[in-house]
Write a structure and sequence with these properties.
CATH superfamily: Jelly Rolls
Strand content: 35-45%
Largest sheet: 6 strands, mixed
Low-confidence stretches: none
Structural class: mainly beta
Number of domains: 1
Oligomer: single chain
Number of strands: 15
Helix content: under 10%
Radius of gyration: 16 Å
Mean pLDDT: 96
CATH architecture: Sandwich
CATH class: Mainly Beta
CATH topology: Jelly Rolls
Order of helices and strands: EEEHEEEEEEEEEEHEE
Distance between the termini: 13 Å
Length: 188
């Protein structure tokens, strides 16, 4: 089964605008996504080039995530951090926009980050475990071993002080086990 999924939601357009189901447990279960989401998060990033991540929570509060952009545009990234994975340290990415309605799903064992490509960008995402500060973790967004091809140069990046101090992959001892599915990005 593919690990990371890019999900295109169906939109029903008319002269008023559009309507879309952003989540339907039955439909998602039909494509193998049986996660139980327990918390919704919503962020606003004012500046272009804001990077949030690469974040994860460690077990026993590890989170699968379902991410979507509800205003603006982001470059969204999932990095495989499952020890023993043949794709450890590799990433997949997708552009999520308010206009395209696409969502990126990543299971437990992936670090997540996004970069805003428009001002006043809003991102919403569902997670499968509650926020637990003691399990909060992350990696540097500009880790040379991961080598994410960010669409904007480093001098345009806006980071929190916390994210600027995150460790590198080579200094990280992963608590996540490889489940037998190497990193792939599948479109649904």
């Amino acid at each position: 089964m593919p690990t990371v999924r890019l999900i295109t939601t169906r939109r029903f357009d008319d002269d008023r605008g559009w309507f879309s189901e952003s989540y339907n447990a039955c439909a998602y279960s039909g494509v193998g996504l049986n996660d139980v989401f327990v918390q919704d998060n919503h962020s606003l990033s004012r500046a272009i080039g804001t990077v949030r991540g690469l974040h994860f929570q460690t077990p026993t509060f590890a989170q699968a995530k379902l991410v979507r952009c509800v205003r603006g545009r982001i470059f969204d990234v999932a990095v495989d951090v499952r020890r023993g994975s043949p794709t450890y340290g590799r990433y997949v990415s997708a552009e999520l926009t308010a206009d395209n309605g696409a969502q990126l799903y990543m299971p437990v064992g992936f670090a997540h980050a996004f970069m805003t490509l428009e001002p006043d960008t809003e991102v919403m995402y569902k997670v499968t475990a509650f926020y637990a500060p003691q399990n909060d973790g992350g990696l540097r967004y500009d880790d040379p071993d991961i080598a994410v091809a960010w669409p904007l140069p480093a001098e345009q990046v806006v980071l929190s002080p916390k994210d600027a101090e995150l460790p590198l992959l080579r200094d990280f001892l992963s608590p996540f086990d490889y489940d037998g599915d190497p990193l792939t990005l599948t479109e649904l």
